[in-house]
Amino acid sequence: MHRYRFLLTRQWVILTLVAIALIPTMIRLGFWQQHRYEERTARNNLVSDALHAKPVPVERLTSPGHAVTRTEKYRTVTATGTFDTSREVVVRRRTNSDDEVGFHVLTPFVLTDGKVLLVNRGWIPSNGVQTAFPKIPAPPAGRTTISGRLKADETTAASGIKNVKGLPDRQIMLINSAEEARRLGAKVLGGYVEQTAPEAKDGSPEQITDPGSEDAPLNYAYMIQWWLFAAGVPVGWWFLVRREIRDREEAAAEQKPEETEETAPATV
Predict the structure, then answer these.
(1) How many whole angstroms separate alpha carbon 125 and alpha carbon 11?
(2) Where does the chain cross the membrane (predicted)?
(3) CA angle 121, 122, 123 (to 5 degrees)
(4) Which of 34, 82, 187, 252 is surrounded by the fewest CB atoms within 10 Å?
(5) Contact 163, 180 (CB under 8 A)
């Protein structure tokens, strides 16, 4: 066992302890990636099911004060009413598909029963000016039927967007039906709708793109990768041990002939 005495040196004790600590850490990271994979897969399935579900009237899914649930989110809904552009606002610091910064246009949509639905009509550029109220293309006039994706109220906790106070007139940071109900003094349906039809004339406001799917297979690949790393640590450790033994034996073999020559008796 003297071949392995070097494992008791400070350098090898530290290396071995690090290897032992890495294995469970990598296994845990693999399980975390597995959890993310399952989360994202479930989210993708929910979104896909919602997007492909049959459109329903908006008031079947939401009402004043209602919190839109995960299963209701992204459902395609329809509504008939009139756009109230006089109380329209814009949502600051929103980007389009090209990551250009601008505004989302949020227009109250007064339903036939008098309740209000918040409709996000899409994205417009800020043209470098964030303080002035932008010029917004008008929606269809008169009684109109629209459809779109139902979304939950935005909050700072969920979005990471700070609800800044003291903004310029008719500008907001978050789309929140409770806050808009107070501003409008009306019964506002919970959540809001990202309009998909009818499409805006000349493409403005620019429609908000489909939410798409999260890259769940990437998390699956990371899961496998971490577990392979965990399996590779003891293999790598053993490889280093074998190389250390070989290097020590080679060094000893080179040193032995030199010692033999030095101790050999002189010939006459």
Answers:
(1) 60
(2) 12-32, 220-240
(3) 145
(4) 252
(5) no
Identify any residues that bridge with 94 across adjacent strands, giving them in sequence order: 102
d(CA 90, CA 134) in angstroms, rounded, equals 8
Q: Give residues with Cβ within 8 angstroms of 185, minimum separation 6.
A: none
pTM as predicted = 0.73
Query: Which two three-digit tokens encode residue 12?
Result: 């090898």
Closest Cα partner for 65 from 144, 177, 152, 170? 177
The model's pLDDT over 61-109, given as tens digits with 9 standing for 90+, comes to: 999 999 999 899 999 999 999 999 999 999 999 999 888 999 999 999 9
What CA–CA distance (Å, rounded) separates 142 from 109?
Answer: 11
Select the more confidently predicted residue: 192 or 8: 192
